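Recall that a protein's primary structure is simply its ordered list of amino acids. Everything else, from secondary elements to tertiary packing, is in principle encoded there. The following example makes that idea concrete.
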Amino acid sequence: MARRRHTHPSCLARFLAAWGNLALWSFALTLVLWNLARIYPGDRWLLVRVGNYFAPWLMIGVFVALVIALLGRRRWLWRMFLALGLIFGVRFWPMLLPRLDGKSVTADASTASLRVMTFNVHYANDDVAGVTRLIRAEAPDLAAFQEFTQPFADQLISKLAPEYPYALLDHSEWPRLGLVSRYPLVALPTPPDAWRTQAARWTTPEGEVIIWNVHSSPSVGQRGWERQRQTFLAIAREVKDASWPVIVLGDLNTTDQAQNYQLLAEHLTDVHRAVGWGFGFTFPGRWRDPWPFPIHKVPLIPFLRIDHILVNPHWLPEEIHVVPEGPGSDHLPVVATLRRAF
């Protein structure tokens, strides 16, 4: 009678399984510590801020790890990843669930919708024709630009003048902020601690609107984070008790998971979280900065949402979308449709 042969996992298989198990546990414990650090000391820590930028991708990683742990029958691991998945789900569920009919705020049926756009055009952009086509295709009533250099602005404003006769540039030398509109604009003063911001009164057929065009400093470095916090605190002071419609839009250089972002979200509604679907990534569109290699020709997939449109309770957001191509820029434009609320 032939002897039955017993098969055992090879040394390589056992080695890979051990390292895979170690990697899963390391990933789970790192996320637990990161979530605790978000509570205290919060975004003051660099690693917390970096994690906030990549939170959507960490969530995807959690659900991949959950499936692996379930298939591997790692009971404690899959329980831990399930708990982490629930935590991430609570943070992102408004953007991941299908939108239901019906609105929580009643729109003023007597008013027309207004469309606004934000677009960081990049300081080295020379594709004036492409941006002109973009504006005409999306047809916003107001476009807010960041890194809006004087030569680029002069050409674009000239080309758009028949449809957009009103334009307003800030007084900084670089990088400038600019507004282009179908309706009149009047510059307003900004607080001294609101760094790289532009404020304007926008006179539309639906009434006057206060516009804040923002190009915040990146929050990765400590100094940039502190300056960004000062800027958002200054804007929050200006808009929190506003009795008129307010729109804050621009390249905020932070995500909706950051504590600095919450300074604005306490008083304003993020239009993407209100009516958008998906993660709404806006950066990077393509590489624009000079490199020794032709990396700018490599197609990229946006993986951060750092360009935002926020409104106060005087607005009912109707729609928002990210334009899939930002001519000449490393950012993608964001366009929102808004209607006055009762």
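The mean pLDDT is 91. The chain is about 35% helix and 20% strand.
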